[in-house]
Design a protein that fits this description.
The chain is an all-alpha fold and about 120 residues long. The chain contains 8 helices and no strands.
């Protein structure tokens, strides 16, 4: 029943709970699914919470310090331009981003282009 109630909360109310240190797992989970901007305010993140955030809002990768390659791939497949927030992306991540949006090749740093001959 609690899960059903939380799913019906709007973003404002979920963020209000998080900002007031009501950081129950279900509240955090629902918050990141509804609005990626809530991710930076979650204190005790789990990999699953970060993954849910990135799956729903690829650009939230910027709020994850040293994200694993799996999350990087999810991010660029959801929103190719999120590659801008990834330090030293692998070749696989670069190619996935370029496949999603060819413009990405234009915004990659030159050292990444040189490194992978892009």
């Amino acid at each position: 029943m609690m899960k059903k109630i939380l799913q019906e909360f709007d973003t404002f109310h979920l963020l209000h709970l998080i900002l007031n240190d009501v950081q129950d797992y279900e509240i955090c989970k629902n918050a990141v699914v509804k609005n990626g901007f809530s991710l930076p305010y979650i204190k005790n993140r789990t990999y699953e919470i970060e993954k849910l955030s990135v799956e729903n809002h690829g650009w939230t990768i910027k709020y994850i310090k040293n994200p694993p390659e799996e999350l990087q791939l999810i991010a660029v497949k959801k929103y190719a331009l999120s590659i801008e927030f990834i330090k030293n992306p692998s070749l696989e991540v670069c190619l996935a981003a370029i496949e999603k949006n060819p413009y990405v090749k234009e915004i990659l740093p030159q050292e990444i282009k040189d490194k992978y001959n892009l």
